[in-house]
Design brief:
With 293 residues, the protein is of the alpha/beta class. Strands 1-2-3-4-5-6-7-8 form an eight-stranded parallel β-barrel, surrounded by six helices. The two termini are 34 Å apart. Pfam families: DHDPS. Keywords: Lyase. It comes from Frondihabitans australicus.
Length: 293
C-alpha cells in the first residue's frame, strides 16, 4: 500500500521532567488527523533513540486509536536486529500493519549486512515495510543501486530517504522500476514535495507538517501527479517554502511552533536547543498568519 503524498513525521511530547506525555501526544495526533494521510511515529523527529520499547508501544497504540492501522506507520528501527524485530513483533500484535525500520547504525554496515538486518524484520511481520535510509545520522551511506538491491533482496515495500539520501529519489525510483510489484519512495525533505512528485516519488515524510498540517495538506492537494502547481498557487508555494526553511532544521523549532499553537510543550528528551529569539518571533508570526488564513 501507499500512504498518500503527505506523511507527518510526528514529534513525541515530553513533560518538563522528561517523562512521556501521552495526553499531549493524543492532542498532537488530533491536531494533524484531519489533514495528513498518515503519521510516521517514533521516527527521528520523534526522538526514537531516547525512547524505551514500552514507550514506543504506548505511542503506537495511541496512534492506532486515533488514526487507525491504515494511517499509522510505526518506526520500529533500532541499532540491532534483535531489538528491531522484538519492537516490530509487539507492534504487529497490537494491530500495526505499516512499518518502517532504519538501517543498522553506529557500526559500519555493508549492503549485505543492511539487507540481512531488514530481511529479519520482513520475516517477522506482514503488512507494509519501508526501509529507512538516513546516511547523515547512521553513517551507512548507500547509493541508489545499493538501496534498490536492499529493497529487492529484503522484500521491502519501499523506502524513506532522508538527508543525503533524499537526493537520489529519482534514481531509486528508476532502479526499482523493474521489480514486479509496487514500490513506494518517500523523501524526508520537507520542502521538496514538488520535486519528489516530479521524480516519481510517492510523497514526503514531513516533520514540519506536525506544526503546520493545514499548509502542507493544501500544498499536497494543489500539486498534480508530476509535481506541477496549478494556476494561482504562487502564494501557497511561497508560504510552504518559507515554513519549511524556518522550521525544518530543528526538532526544537517544530516543538516551539506546536507550543505556539497550544498543542504540546517545547520539552525534548534529547539534546535539543530551543530556537533563538529571532527564530521564535518568526515562528510566532508564521503561526499567526496561518491562523488568520
Amino acid at each position: 500500500m501507499t500512504w498518500g503524498r503527505l506523511v507527518c513525521a510526528i514529534t513525541t511530547p515530553f513533560d518538563d521532567d522528561g517523562a512521556l506525555d501521552l495526553a499531549a501526544f493524543r492532542r498532537t495526533l488530533m491536531h494533524i488527523e484531519p489533514h495528513v494521510d498518515a503519521a510516521f511515529v517514533a521516527g527521528t523527529t520523534g526522538e526514537f533513540p531516547a525512547l524505551a520499547e514500552a514507550e514506543r508501544h504506548d505511542l503506537f497504540t495511541t496512534a492506532l486509536d486515533v488514526l487507525g492501522p491504515d494511517r499509522t506507520i510505526a518506526h520500529v528501527g533500532a541499532v540491532d536486529a534483535v531489538s528491531t524485530v522484538r519492537i516490530a513483533a509487539d507492534a504487529a500484535l497490537n494491530g500495526v500493519t505499516g512499518f518502517a525500520a532504519i538501517t543498522p547504525y553506529y557500526l559500519p554496515a555493508s549492503v549485505g549486512e543492511v539487507q540481512g538486518h531488514l530481511a529479519r524484520v520482513r520475516e517477522a511481520v506482514t503488512g507494509t515495510l519501508l526501509g529507512y535510509f538516513f546516511p547523515d545520522r547512521t553513517g551507512v551511506d548507500l547509493d541508489a543501486a545499493a538501496i534498490a538491491s536492499v529493497i529487492a533482496g529484503a522484500g521491502l515495500d519501499g523506502a524513506k530517504l532522508s538527508g543525503r539520501a533524499s537526493g537520489v529519489v529519482s534514481d531509486v525510483v528508476r532502479a526499482t522500476a523493474s521489480l514486479n510489484r509496487s514500490i513506494s519512495v518517500y523523501s524526508g525533505n520537507d520542502g521538496d514535495l514538488e520535486g519528489v512528485l516530479s521524480q516519481g516519488g510517492s510523497g514526503i515524510v514531513s516533520g514540519c507538517s506536525t506544526a503546520f498540517p493545514e499548509l502542507f495538506a493544501e500544498a499536497a492537494a494543489a500539486l498534480d501527479d508530476t509535481g506541477g502547481w496549478g494556476a494561482g498557487s504562487e502564494t501557497l508555494r511561497a508560504d510552504l517554502s518559507h515554513v519549511a526553511a524556518l522550521v525544518a532544521p530543528s526538532i526544537g523549532r517544530v516543538k516551539y511552533a506546536l507550543s505556539a499553537r497550544g498543542v504540546a510543550s517545547t520539552a525534548a528528551r534529547m539534546s535539543v536547543d530551543p530556537p533563538h529569539a529571532d527564530v521564535r518571533s518568526a515562528i510566532v508570526d508564521a503561526v499567526a498568519a496561518l491562523t488568520r488564513a
